[in-house]
Every structure is written in structure tokens, then in C-alpha cells.
Amino acid sequence: MGFLEAIETSGIATWVRESPSIFAYTGVLSAHAIGLAIAVGVNTVIALRLLGFASDIRAESLPRLFPFFYAGFTINLISGSMLLAASLTTLLGRWIFLTKLALILLAMINFEIMRMKIFRPATAGGALTVDERAARKFAWTALILWGLAVITGRLTSYPTFVEAIFGF
Amino acid sequence: MDAFLQSLSNAIATLNIDDPVSAWAWAWPVGEILHFTGMAVLIGTIGIIDARILGLFKGITIKSLERYAWIGAVAFCVNAITGFIFIAGNPIGGPIEYLANLSLQLKMLLVLIAGINLALFYFTGLAKRTNELGPNDSAPLGAKVVAGVSLFCWFGVICFGRLIMYNDTLLWALGL
Fold first, then answer.
1. Burial label, B95 (beta-carbon count in 10 A; 0-12, 13-18, 19+)
2. How far is B8 from chain A (nearest CA, A)?
3. Tell me: the pLDDT tens digits for B57-116?
């Protein structure tokens, strides 16, 4: 049995795909929507602040929101892996889905670089000062990448529509 | 109840939204993309305010986070409009197919409760009191209850929203 087949016929993948329980496919799907809402939503709040919105908020306090962003991402990493395992061969054959994964990877890299460059104190143990001008490019990149991730994510369910639009 | 839903469906059907929705292949995908984006913006803005009121994090005043509230309201409007188009533009089964769907009904009930919850937040003076808090202050208990109900409602809305297309699973879980 091939590696991909082994994953797709595993106990957990089969349970997600075939169990009539509300916690199986529909539960994992709901968790994926919730994780998306938290990750993209919190990221939007952070990005908008870095672009100058709600400037009453000290940019230096934004790291307080990071745990929620990571929580949303983690929920989606787990739920996404379960959904992927349940329909592995189908999804790996959809270029729009692979594009979504690439966009998410780029978005997470962007976030980590932003954390290193913008949200790290200049001297070890010193106070954090956020350079909002330098932060702007990370904020725009985040909004664009996550926006495209949401779009490609939705289009993953419409393979015939994707083919009609893009020709492949 | 069934007669009411049928007459509501008939009334919505007179708008003939199903014609452009059927004719325009983009309608459903674009509508869903907007609906999911609206969902994320709503959870991000309102959810963060609720989390702060509940004390899940501190260091930022509730008043400054409330600057995002109108964005959440716009996102809600986008979702109300796209949601209405999904129901009114339903090409095959018509509006009644959605209106009679238990998942959709429960979703709308939670939206209503969220709205009443929000109105109570403002009309009981809780909103005014939380706006005066400092960045590390705890919110009053009443505000925490409102925030908890809000998060419960909106996450519930997401779950029932996902279940609309899998309504049979919900019915089976409820033994119906």
C-alpha cells in the first residue's frame, strides 16, 4: 500500500470521512472555520493597527494578541491535517489547494520575520519600541496573503469553477 | 410555523434574486468568499473586545479596542447581505429550502440573541462603565457575562452555518 493510501485509509481519516457523528467531518469542518476566523481576524486587527488604525492602542502592546493568532493557526493546523488526511489524493490533485498551503506558509514566514524585526527590543532586556513605518510592509503583506488564503481556501471546494476560470 | 415560513419564502421569491444568481457563475463563490471574510473580521474585531472584557489578556483599554467595533458591524452587514442572497437566490429549492433548515434556524436564533445581548450591553450602562477602565483593570461581572454570551453566540453561528449543508448530521445527532 502506498504512503498516501495508508494515510487516507487510516483510522482517524476514515472516522473523519465516514462517521455519522456530528463531531466527525462536520465537527472538524466547524473547528476549521473557527480557527480561520480567529487567525485571520486577529491578524487583521494587528495589521490594521500597524497601518495606523486605532492609534490609541500602543503598538508595543500588540504582542498581547499574538497568542490568540497562534491558537487559531494551531486549531487550523490540526483540523486541516484531519480534513486533508480524509481526502488526501483528491486535495493533493487540486492546484488551488496547494496554492492555499503555499500562501499560508508565506504568511507565517512573514509573521515570524515581523516578530523578529519589529517586535524585538533593540537591546537585550531593553524596552520595545515599534517602528511603525518599517512595520507597514509586513502588515500589507499579511493582509494580502491571508486574504488570498481565504479565497483559495473557498475555491478549493469549487474545482469545476476554478477550471472554468483559469482553464486548468 | 410551516405556513409562516412558506409565505416568507414566497415573499422573498418575488424578488427574483435567483435569476442573476443562477446566471452568474461567480455569484456563489464570490458570495462565500465575502461571507467567510466577513466572518473572520467579525470574530477578529468583536472577539478581541470580548476576550479583553473577559480578562483573557490585559494591557490594552477596552475603549481603544472599541475603535474596531464599527468594522465588525460592517462585516456583519456584509454577511447579512450575502447570507440573504444565498437564501433568496437559491436556484433549485428556493428560499424555503433554507428557511426550513434547522441549522439555519438555530444560526439565525443565535444571531438574534447576540443582537439582544449587544443592546443590553449598551442600554444597561455596562458599555459606558467598561469604556472608563484602564488598560489592566478587570471589567464588571455583567460585562463579562455579555462578552461570554457574545463569544458563545458567534462561535455557535459559525458551527450552525457549517452545518446548513449537513443538516441531516445535526438531525441525526439530535435524534430527529
1. buried
2. 29
3. 999 999 999 999 999 999 999 999 999 999 999 988 899 999 999 999 999 999 999 999
Cβ contacts of residue B27 below 8 Å, gap of 6+? B20, B21, B85, B89
- Give the count of Cβ contacts less than 8 A between chain A and B: 117
Which of A54, A154, A164 lies closest to B68 in CB terms?
A: A54
Please say whether the beta carbons of B78 and B24 come within 8 A. no
Using the beta-carbon criterion (under 8 Å), do B45 and A41 form an inter-chain contact? yes
CB-based contact B131:B65 (threshold 8 Å): no
Residue of A nearest to B58 (CA): A64
Q: Are B68 and A45 in contact (CB under 8 A)?
A: yes
Q: What is the pLDDT of residues A75-130, one digit of tens each?
A: 999 999 999 999 999 999 999 999 999 999 999 999 999 999 999 998 888 899 99
Which of B26, B39, B43, B167 should we substitute to test contact with A (largest number of A Cβ atoms within 10 Å)?
A: B43
Cβ separation of A25 and B48 shorter than 8 Å? no
Say how far apart CA B112 and CA B15 lie, in whole Å.
Answer: 24
Class of residue B174 by CB neighbours under 10 A (exposed 0-12, middle 13-18, buried 19+): exposed
CA distance B7 to chain A (A): 31
Cell of A144: 494580502
ipTM score for this prediction:
0.94
Query: Who among B67, B135, B158 is closest to A54 (CB)?
Result: B67
Phi, psi of A99 (to 5 degrees): -65, -40
Residue type, B18: D
Q: What is the pLDDT of residue B174?
A: 95
